[in-house]
Amino acid sequence: MDTRPTFYQEITNMMYATHGDPISTCIQCGTCSGTCPVVEFMDHTPRDLIGMIRADLKDEVLASNTYWYCASCFHCNVRCPAHIDIADLMYTLKRYSIWKNQYPEGLIGPTFAETFVKMILSGGRSYEPVLAPAYIFNYGLQGFLNEALTATGLLLKGRIPVLPPRIKRLDNFRRMVGHIIPASNLVGEAK
Amino acid sequence: MKAYAYFPGCSLEKMALSYHQSALECARRLDLEFQELDDWNCCGTTAYFAIDQLLSYTLSARNLALAEKKKLDMVTPCAGCYKNAYFTNVTLKRDADLAEHINEALKEDDLHYAGTNQVYHLLEVFCNDVGVQEIKKRVTQSLNSLRVAPYYGCQIVRPRKDHEEVENPRYFEDLIAATGATPVEYQLKMRCCGGSLLITSRKAAFSMARNLLQNAMDNGAAVIATACPMCQVNLECYQQQINQEFGARFSVPILYFTQLLGLALGASPKELGFGSELVSASAVLAQIRNKETSTTQSPYIRHATS
Amino acid sequence: MSEKVGVYICHCGANIAGVVDVAALSHWAGELPDVAVARDYKFMCSSLGQELIEKDIQELGLTRVVVAACSPHLHEATFRNCCKRAGLNPYLFEMASIREQVSWVTANKTVALEKSKALISGAVHRVIHNQALEPIIVDINPNVLVVGGGITGIQAALEIADAGYHVYLVEREPSIGGHMAQFDKTFPTLDCSACILTPKMFSAGTHPNITLLTWSEVEKVDGYVGNFTVKVRQKARKVNTELCTGCGICEQKCPKKVIDTVFEAGMGLRKAVYTPFPQAVPKYPVMDVQNCTFFQKGTCKACEKFCPTGAIDFKQEDKVVSFDVGNIILATGWDLFDCRRIPQYGYGRLANVYNSLEFERLSNAAGPTGGKVILRDGVTVPQSVGIIHCVGSRDKNYNPYCSAICCMQSLKFAHLVKEKTGAQVYNFYIDIRTPLKAYDEFYQHILETDETRFVRGKVAEVTDAARLPGEEGKLIIQVEDTLIGKQRRIPVDMVILSAGLEPRHDAKEVAKLFGIGCSADQWFIERHPKLDPVATMTEGVFVAGVCQGPKDIPLSVTQGAAAAARVIGLVNRKQVSLEPVRASVNAEQCSGCRICNNQCPFNAISFLVDKGVSEINPALCQGCGTCVAACPAGAITGSHYTNAQILSQIEGILEVELGQREAVPA
Amino acid sequence: MSDNNQFEPVIVGFTCNWCSYRAADAAGMARIKYSPNVRLIRLMCSGRIDPQFVLKALSEGADGVLITGCHPGDCHYVEQNYKTLRRYALLKRTLRQMGLEDNRVRLVWASAAEGRILAEEIDKFVSDVRALGPLNWIKMATTTYVDPAPASA
After folding, report:
1. What are the residue boundaries of the structural domains of chain C, listed by start?
2. What is the pLDDT of residue C217?
3. Which CATH number belongs to the domain containing residue A51 in this structure?
4. C605-608 and D11-15 as β-strands: parallel, antiparallel, unpaired?
5. Of A79, A99, A119, at which residue does a domain stop?
6. For A40-54, A114-128, C278-292, C390-404, which range has the lowest pLDDT when averaged over its residues?
7. Do A76 and A117 fall within a single domain?
């Protein structure tokens, strides 16, 4: 007998520190999707996604852009009549998808998340210039020009730092991170 | 003088320097002592949770431990940092095993998280610890009749369920009213501005920001007050691009609430970091000055003195 | 003298036998000292099972019986009767709960067997010390108190009064009738609420066996089944009901208009002296002292001037009346969920968002608009109406339970709106629940004829923030249409919130007053959810209608009648037997220290000064045993819960454990 | 009892007839699985609990005693559970004086609706007593109990 956990079980297990009730309590009422400010951009509504997870439709879930569009605004969380931590579910799916290296083509979210993490691990603080221009090519020429204009505006107003900030006890910080993800290639690359 | 461990967060170093300056200026004028955390690190923001939840907790736990070293409660002006620090604190207090695991890592920096302090957002410190009535007493320059739309955003009130009013809080309005300005009632004050999607899903972010700006305008806002650097950047710096995208003509100043509060407490625009806006706030400043003269010389007083 | 104990182990089908090895258990029990016979049987509570016990008592001369089965709260009475029939005193019987406490809560079969042995061993040890007792017989006062004058209370009162017994019907409001009097139509037949309710109200008001106490509240209840003493506060009406003819002139002449937040749900006005509605029973008005011009400003007295019989009495005071009853029925009803608690639905902020009671008044022909369904501006007929189900129900943020009536109520609203306005109606639901007779047919009828659009999805918010063309000036309902997986924004003119039913705000205090329990949601707890739905754990106190849990009119009426039948049955018996669980003082041993004297909340213990000892009045003693535990001299005995019985049970329970521990050292 | 030779404490529990025994019934009806280490004894009220019952249980081999009753304010006999509460405090002091860990005895309130809460409290108590280890208190001499005949009612 195959005893490997199902996709549904994997996702449930991954929601380790969730504040809410398990997704098995979902009554498919759609409050989350009715509330969601980004839902028009998602290929499946959050409610639909929960149904798909419960049906073990792993490939379909991993091909969905839904959780990459989640803005973590937590509005669904506070309204959910079943007290499900839906935002945490979205994070869980992001983690799962990065872990499996499986996500839809053309999405910036996964690469962005990884770059962001590497950036913080290298300096301990975030540095906007690394982030914005690197991904703006994805929005085409017009987008790039617009971004450059905004960036120039911010630069002129002195709101963009020239050098990346670093914390002082960076070595301690990196060793601390090493305790949490000892063999991570993220840390390796950051160094 | 009440003291707090102050955690500014990455954005306030440069991008939102005016928030940093005005927050400290307001604190000074309200007799609060903000001691900046020594060698704080990035809270991890929203993106971090997508990679490693445990690491995200660790990053926030380091900052909490730094605050504990000072034996002070932590205050942060950034809504994102606040949410991460607040929930890390809640989760670690509840989960001793997780705290133990993270403390192993914190040892590398000679730190220890014990869960002895509280985490507050700047708005809470002003509204609850200082109190709206006290602030009202300290106002020296009324912002009379300036129509300010308070923008709560997401992470100050959510996802807390223990919060009294998650859907319709009033403390931001009360604070604005205390400065003598008129808080604008508008429906989307709790809706997400899309800031966290700026880089990954620009179209969605713009559409959300557009809805918000439109709703505030429709209800007669002259300025939007924010309590989060991400919201500020999204709503202000990208206004022009939003105008292009949707053929709109927004030109709304987006100020940090501390900049408005600072003006009311008698600080100069320069002390509050005015001048770095991409959407000019000169009209707002001019209006406050005009109103000032008109209120000091109200028809009644003129009549009485003449 | 050695006792002969019979031990009977029930399989309860597979409920017990599926987890506990009943054969092994019965074999083991047979070996216990003093046990003459041990048997297991499929269903001990069946007539065959009971006959088995009776036969053994008679043929083997058993002197004690132990049944290991379900909870004693379910079948203790059954087996006691069985012993009695076979000639054994029913108190020489013990029960071990190996279903609720073992097989249903234990996964491991070995452990379940051990725990069953421990419980049976405890029961066998205890039963040997049990004493033959006779139940205490008390007379039943035939009078009955019914609390709450809604349709449930009215039904109960009429049934009892018609059976020839006297009823005190106490109602908090000025008139009986309850929520049903506010409704226009009732589902699923759409008959007019007033037409079917008014005759019953009238009968209750004129019945020679019913004493109506409206504008009154129960303040104190003392006593026990058959013998309660009740104190009721009659709030001052400021109207002498001896003189009042109910002509209504005072109300006509009263210059003060007040928003009626009770009967008209805030939709209409009333006067400061008023009857809530024309068919009110009794017909006498009450004066609202908070709003009366005379009471607030010292002048006016228009009502007094015009009253043709001089019935207005500004000096009238509250009056406390006291009377004795044998039984009590609580039918205190419900409060409507406060929709302000869900700010995103806009109730209280957006003028044209109504709650269900407001809509009932709006559509009622006798209501403030004469039954016209119009917007808050008083003229505009809505072109489109959204009805939201499950407001405040089935939601862990508010009430987790289903309010049971909202689906049918919402379907009724959909029909009434369509009939009265021709508007496009939308119903937003999570599930449609129409389980009772003719209910689903009503749903089918709405589907077939009314062109109502049904959208499956819990509404996320109602807003006036227009964003898209066609939304300007409308209320926009934002919802996921879950059947197509799309978020929709539907602009409408009017929104009706089908708000849930909640326990009365003071349900907890009322429960305490009458000595009954409340569930976590604060509904009153019945004795058994299926088999004893109107009795409570307190003998002589019954519950009926929505105060026990959400239900509609037919079920409420059924429960009112059911509670009445239970009460009539008791009263007809004239006497009731009480458990002989009572404390008594052994005067020989009593040192007269009086420590027990202040242990009793029922004042059953008195000190006999001349004899220098304390004494317990068995009629007042409720059998809790607190004084027994308090007596330093051990002079007080609590029958059926004696020290010997309990200490032996402890020994018995632990005997099994020790044996087992020696076998398997930890 | 368990496979890994983990110490399984034996616990005697006292319940009142109205709230906590019914909570145990409710836990059963809801099929909530909880630690089987507790054996319940039904009394009419937690106010009936005589300290000698607790000492008897501990001396006869119980490793812990659980006392349960209605929530304060909800007592079927108006206020008797407050007396239980006071006696409980005294009892804990007595246990300490006798050299016993006073946390081998615990008081838990459970209403008739709180089957889940009772089950959780039982699990918690069992695991806490398990951590304390076996009691092995001196076994009291077994005595024969004779009650006086009840007064005729």
Report:
1. 5-135, 138-231+322-333+510-575, 236-317, 335-502, 583-638
2. 97
3. 1.10.1060.10
4. unpaired
5. A99
6. A114-128
7. no
Per-residue pLDDT of B6-19, as tens digits, reads 999 988 888 889 99
Check if the beta carbon of residue B209 is closer than 8 Å to that of residue B193: yes
Q: Predicted confidence band at A179 (pLDDT cuts at 50, 70, 90)? A: confident
Q: How many domains does chain A have?
A: 2
Distance from CA of B123 to the nearest CA of C (A): 22
Report chain C's mean pLDDT, rounded to a whole number. Answer: 94
D11-132: CATH, from 3.40.50.10860, 3.40.50.960, 3.50.80.10, 3.40.50.300 = 3.40.50.960
Q: Are residues A13 and A93 in the same domain?
A: yes
Would you say domain C5-135 falls under CATH 3.40.50?
yes
Cα separations in angstroms, C368 against B17, B203, C253, C412: 59, 50, 19, 20
- Residues in chain A within 8 Å Cβ distance of B91: 17, 19
Assess whether chains B and A touch, using the rule of 3 or more C-beta pairs within 8 angstroms: yes
Which of the 8 DSSP states describes residue C504?
-
Pick from C342, C343, C465: which is nearest to B188 by CB? Answer: C465
Residues C535 and C547: beta-carbon distance below 8 Å: no
With b meaning 16 or more CB within 10 Å and e meaning fewer, what string describes C431-467? ebbbeeeebeebbeebeeebebebbbbbbbbbbbbbb
Q: How far is B242 from chain C (nearest CA, A)?
A: 16
Domains C138-231+322-333+510-575 and C335-502 fall in the same CATH topology:
yes
Fold of C583-638: Alpha-Beta Plaits (3.30.70)
Residue C459 has pLDDT above 70, yes or no: yes
- Position A22 in a domain: yes
Select from C395, C397, C457 the Cβ nearest to the Cβ of A30. C457
Write the CATH number of the domain with boundaries B140-296: 3.40.50.11810
Final residue before a domain boundary, out of A78, A99, A120 = A99
**Chain A closest CA to C458's CA: distance in Å?**
5
Domain boundaries, chain B: 2-121, 140-296
Q: Does A28 touch chain C (CB under 8 A)?
A: yes
Residues 6+ apart with CB under 8 A from A135: A108, A111, A112, B199, B200
pLDDT band at B293 (very low <50, low <70, confident <90, very high): very low
Q: At the top level of CATH, which class does the domain C335-502 belong to?
A: alpha beta
CA distance A52 to A94: 16
Q: In this complex, which of A37, A177, A180 lies closest to B208 when CB atoms are compared?
A: A37
Instruction: Give me A118's structure tokens.
Output: 């590497």
For D74, the token pair is: 């909800």
CATH number of C138-231+322-333+510-575: 3.50.50.60
Structural contact between residues B217 and B239, judged by C-beta atoms closer than 8 angstroms: no
The C-alpha atoms of residue A70 and residue A45 are separated, in whole angstroms, by: 11
Chain A residues lying within 8 Å of B203, measured CB to CB: 41
Q: How far is C456 from chain A, CA to nearest CA, in Å?
A: 8
**ipTM above 0.95 for this complex:** no
Domains of chain D, by residue range, sit at 11-132
What is the SS3 assignment for B139-167?
Answer: CCCCCCCCEEEEECCCCCCCCCCCCCCCC
Look at D44 and C131 and tell me if their CB atoms are within 8 Å. no
First to last CA, chain C: 39
Task: Kindly state whether residues A114 and A182 are assigned to the same domain.
Answer: yes
- Please give the average per-residue pLDDT across B21-44, as a whole number: 93
The Cα B210–Cα B206 span in angstroms is 6
CB D9 within 8 A of CB D134: yes
B165 and C464: CB-CB below 8 Å?
no
Residue of C281, C139, C275, C101 lying closest to C206 (CA atoms)? C281
Task: Please name the amino acid found at residue C509.
Answer: E
**Secondary structure (3-state) at C330:** strand
